[in-house]
Amino acid sequence: MRITFGPWGETLGEVADAARAAEDAGAEVVWVPELHRSATVGAAALAQATSTTGVGTAIALAFTRSPMVTALEALDLDELSGGRFVLGLGTGVQRLNEDWHHVTWGKPVTHLRETVRNIRAFWAGCTSGEPIALDGDHEPMQIRGYRRPYPVLRTDIPVYLAAMGPAMTRLAGEIGDGWISHELISPDYLRDLILPELEAGLARGDRPRDALDVVTSACCSVDADPQVARRRSAGMVGFYASVRTYADFFAFHDLADEQAAVVEAFRAGRGAGDLAHAVADRMVDALTLSGTRDDVAERLAAYDGITDSIKLTPPTHGLSAAETRAAQKELIALIADLTGASGTGALR
């Protein structure tokens, strides 16, 4: 099971420092999200800050850039990193696409399939000068008179897809080089609901299981006091629990009543990032890796054999920068323990 990491920082410089420390601690990939920063700009900063670890987007929004722009940025990031880049894509939700970015939503599974097809076709043909002609319901691509005059380091940059719903998860299995979860997921949910859909997608694409890197994301909080660790993670759980579309997810874990309490607090006027007080410890224990180093190592062991990679991220929701910084420092030290890396993973 590969250990990977999602660094945090108030500035891009701090994110880069955290990525270097995680690389030193043995993390095999460092990932950057897209919401409060651009995923591709963040990936560029990490590519220059590191030298051996992979650099991935987890995730870049798939529909807010054209496939050609995404393909160009990926080629540039792969060059900048010396062939270490991983393009992680996700659809985002309908309201974000339509209201924030003025993007037509349509059928997201078909839209993402065409987007990935176009990106790969562009990588394969952009230096030849030959036309690219692709039909599509969402992303037709007609390119003539174009030839990229610069060398392409790789035409097979890995493409990972973020998914939780069954149809999108099957698509990840069918066409993706990897699948990425959101930050809350349990071994049982992964085994019982996600892996069967991924396997169905692999079968549809006539692909072997080892063609797909299953990346389980996990909010991880480590402290000598397990209650301190739990309370740091509670805000992340509250953020997801405030979304009614995750009702089936919480019900699967026998947490429907606990989610209802969070939703009630949200409707009473508490912000989505300020719901930790409404989150029971039982929710945190079921859905995050929180506790002492020994606690977290034991919880991590439950994923061994059912996921290929684990992406550890520090808690952020409802926390001050100082609290997140402290949580991240403990988490990077844990990674060094888990990997047995010769580096300390110490943050400057």
Automatic annotation (TrEMBL):
Question: Signal peptide location in the record?
Answer: none
* Domain Luciferase-like residue range list: 10-304
Listed InterPro entries: F420-G6PD/mer, Luciferase-like_dom, Luciferase-like_sf
UniProt-listed Pfam families: Bac_luciferase
> What is this protein called in UniProt?
LLM class flavin-dependent oxidoreductase
